[in-house]
Specification:
Structural class: mainly alpha
Number of domains: 2
Largest sheet: none
Distance between the termini: 34 Å
Number of helices: 11
Oligomer: single chain
Shape: globular
């Protein structure tokens, strides 16, 4: 998967006492929500740094709370466990995909929305400093990977709902939306991971090749083993002999 943290908390709106109670009622919850989001991001940033430096399994909730400058009691107001902190990366990823889907022009076909969403989110993830750190943590710790994947069904369901708004109402389309959500979640993550592992910065080529490879696999093409850089893998060469 690939992930980037949410934007930092923006300045709260100024409440004019002359404008009356309705605006105050609306503004106060908005301010609290932004404040809570900002604290959640601080905890997550602190946790990711500790997971990289000391290891996910070795880091405790108390360690994360101290690094974030809060009490352990305050930590549990925002996250239920250390694993919940790790899963936050996946939840953020899902939010980014949904925002990208919703942000596409209404004139786009479902296929165009799918491709634009994958490209936009993957490009953001590739350039975000936290993404590489998350991949490092997941690679080193099976427990961290399991914690993250514990929210996969939830995230995939939310992304599927975003796709479903583009489709007619029918059981077949519900299935299609779920399938699109699953593929979208994986294609962007696989492409970004490949770029990191091979020192590549051009995400478009990796995504195009990933989609081509998926199509070739489903169609039974012998070119399914081709790498994103255009070279054939050893396995594909062996099958061609």
């Amino acid at each position: 998967m690939c992930y980037a943290a949410h934007d930092a908390m923006k300045p709260s709106p100024v409440i004019d006492s002359n404008e009356g109670a309705p605006d105050e009622i609306v503004s106060a919850p908005n301010f609290r929500a932004r404040k809570q989001q900002a604290i959640r991001e601080i905890i997550w940033d602190s946790a990711i740094d500790l997971f990289v430096q000391n290891g996910y399994d070795e880091t405790t909730v108390d360690d994360v709370a101290q690094a974030a400058g809060i009490s352990q009691r305050s930590f549990f107001r925002y996250f239920t466990t250390k694993g919940d902190v790790m899963a936050y990366a996946l939840l953020t990823y899902g939010d980014q995909l949904i925002a990208a889907i919703d942000g596409c022009p209404e004139t786009y076909t479902v296929s165009e929305v799918f491709r634009e969403t994958v490209i936009r989110v993957a490009q953001e993830a590739l350039t975000h400093p936290r993404t590489r750190k998350v991949f490092e943590i997941l690679k080193k710790s099976p427990a961290a990977a399991a914690a993250e994947m514990s929210r996969l069904g939830e995230v995939q369901g939310l992304v599927a709902k975003a796709f479903l708004k583009l489709l007619p109402e029918s059981p077949e389309c519900e299935f299609a939306a779920g399938l699109l959500a699953g593929i979208t979640l994986q294609i962007a993550g696989v492409s970004v991971r490949w770029c990191f592992e091979h020192g590549e910065q051009e995400i478009l080529a990796a995504i195009d090749q990933a989609l081509k490879t998926l199509e070739n696999v489903l169609c039974g093409s012998r070119q399914a083993g081709e790498r994103p850089d255009g070279k054939s893998s050893k396995g594909s060469k062996a099958r061609e002999r």
